[in-house]
Design brief:
- The structure is a single chain.
- Helices cover 78% and strands 0% of the residues.
- It has 18 helices and no strands.
- The C terminus is likely disordered.
Length: 411
Amino acid sequence: MGSIRHTLRETLTGLPGAYWWLWTSTLVNRLGGFVVGFLTLYLTLERGRSATYAGLVASLYGLGGAIGALAGGALADRVGRRRTMLWAQLCAAAATVALALVSGSVPMAVLAASLGAASGAPRPAAQAAMADLVDDEDRVRAFSLNYWAVNIGFAVSSAVAGLIATHGYVWLFLGDAGTTLLCALVVRLRVPETLPAATGSGSGERPGTERPAGVGIVLRDAKFMTLVGLTFLLGLVVQQGSTMLPVDMGRHGLTARDYGTVIALNGVLVVVLQIPLTRLTARRGQAVVLAVGTLLMGWGFGLTALAGSVLAYAGTVAVWTVGEILYAPASMSFVADLAPSHARGRYDGVHTVAWAAASFVGPVLGGSALDHWGSAATWGTCAVIGTLTAAGSRVLLGFRRPAGAATGGRV
């Protein structure tokens, strides 16, 4: 028990108070993230739309998220991290309520895309603010704890949303909007502005003298765009967990309930293992952590080719979940290290788009591969992609810029 307390104390202490308010806003927002997971059910069961229409709306939500991430990253570097988060959250709350009230097919589709954009915009701003607030050596720990908050919120909201939906789907939308407003209130009252141009502490220049970087300078950063390409490849693999994994389990005679049980293990393991693994890898090199995490994700999905029972599938999920726990905070920290302090929002926005693009392409490629190549070849390809991505990440980190070289250290 004393060892657990010691681990928690060392993991949770030493970060600035402003970081913890930002962490709290993330947790509050994700605790009320009811709508996205139930959107297709709402459209088909409550509104009587077809599965094709529901899929289209879900895709539009994802497209909006990609656009929102780019716009949010640009705004975070121009008008400030705090202001971008605040206004995007207010817009997201308004779009959520409106989506519950409209009934026409076109308005619902437009509002879903708008909600995706408003929900995607704060993420690069929040990640940039976290990188601004903490010292270089604390970034992996800070992002790890934030990822922990995201998964706690996801686990709780998924369970609570099902209960709320039994009393009417409109309460899901109102609850989601309410927690989004509460998140905005936390940001408004407790989260400071961290944009270097606003504080004047990011590069040693006077406030406002550093021009915000355009997207072009991000796209010309060869190291960063290599990371974006590797992220896209890994995203193709990760997408199979929510798309082709249930199909593969169904072909082995397992049910939707079996899939729910197996995939729930992902969230449980993240909540339970995030802090211990963060502590365990705290003194490991970032290159090693990122490469090992990527390799475990690729081979975790690759092992699905050998699965046929609930227990075996659960074992594969456990492997790639451990990889996810290692990879997520390390990759976010690496993005923060590569980005100049005044351009972190745009870097985070472009990096987010890699995941959004994978969410469009991954399901199509996975479905085609499963139909034409079969299970073994599909999951084997995931292992190959994971191995190549891990190798690429290791090489990329071997030639990285020193942390803080372009940022002037902590801002």
